[in-house]
Amino acid sequence: MENREDVKRSYKTASMIGVAIIASLFIYLIVVEILRAQLKPFRGFAPLPEMSTFRYVLYGLAVLEVLVIRITQSLLLKRAPGDTVKITAQKLFRASILTVCLSEVPAILGLVLFLLGGLNKDFYALLAVSLVLIFMYFPRLRSWEEWIGKNT
To answer: What does the domain layout of the chain look like in residue ranges?
Structure first.
């Protein structure tokens, strides 16, 4: 019973952190919309001469981020002989926090594109990528319990 409560407590903390990251994405969206409205037409604070090249680099980093999340999650959740429920719950907690945090990176890259060059459509596209990633990797108690049941 104590182990189940530990798992629930870790899950609840991971979920709260995930919700905070989702809230930060909406704060980015509000900032973008305020800047667009107040500084119409917003063309960025420091447009780069090779903005299209920089844009492709950041999109490439966003794609790379998806791969990094998959690899990181599998490495963090690697099972070791003798893992207890508590150790498994800690692994799930760490993997959940890290993957949700890494899922925010595409939106941050989009925010950089917007702030530098005023590229709001790029911000929206990368924000959508972040939201999809967070949805995919958001901690779910049922998944945690199934994973712990299989791996302990």
So the answer is: 2-151
